[in-house]
Amino acid sequence: MVAHDERSQLTRRALLDAGRALFADGGYADVAVNDIARRAGVTTGALYHQFGSKAALFRAVYTELVQSVWMRVVEARTGEPPSLLGDCEAYLDACADPAFDRITIEGPAVIGWDQVLDEAQAMIELSLTAARERGEIADVPIGTVARMLAAALKEAAVMIAVADDPARARADAGDTARRLVGGLLVV
């Protein structure tokens, strides 16, 4: 017999997976709570019990997506010496994921621009701190620079997501990120 806690975790996981797929495919506004519950194989009451609202589920999906992007950034470091530019490139590569695109576009409207930037800023602060410890960048105000880079990279993600030519937009974003970050590098 499955324990209550395990069943609850399975329900939560099913709802997160269903929410991510449906939000990525149809967009937040066009996804009904009933659709999410049906896809997850649970009741709408289970969704409300686990998350409280569709917006809270979206927030959880968004947070999980951001964490998976951070893991991609960390994994990208394993093959090469870590660098701040490498971290930016790995983030921009994640923007090629259609689920990331759609959810990124809707993130500010659903959960608010400040929360979107707060999550990105926290990751960028880690990258900046590591770069400073490696002697890669000058001693800069990490929080301020992280917030500004978070806004720039989030805007790049949206630009890539809505571009007629996402590959061209990704290339342009990479070039621009190199120029922005280049000013921080110790030569």
Protein described:
The chain has helices at about 5-25, 35-40, 45-50, 55-75, 85-95, 100-110, 115-135, 140-160, 165-180. It has about 190 residues and is mainly α. It is elongated. It has 2 domains: about 1-50, Arc Repressor Mutant, subunit A (Orthogonal Bundle); about 60-180, Orthogonal Bundle (Tetracycline Repressor, domain 2).
Quick structural gist:
With 187 residues, the protein is mostly helical. It has 9 helices and no strands.
Overall shape: elongated
Q: Give the N-terminus to C-terminus distance in angstroms.
A: 62 Å
Q: Specify the number of helices.
A: 9
Determine the structural class based on helices, strands and strand pairing: mainly alpha
User: Quick one: biggest sheet?
Assistant: none
User: Oligomerization state of this entry?
Assistant: single chain
Number of strands: 0
Q: Which CATH class of the largest domain? A: Mainly Alpha
- Beta percentage is under 5%
Radius of gyration: 18 Å
The run of helices and strands is HHHHHHHHH
CATH topology of the largest domain: Tetracycline Repressor, domain 2
| Mean pLDDT, all residues | 90
What level of helicity do the residues show?
over 70%
Give the number of domains.
2
CATH architecture of the largest domain: Orthogonal Bundle
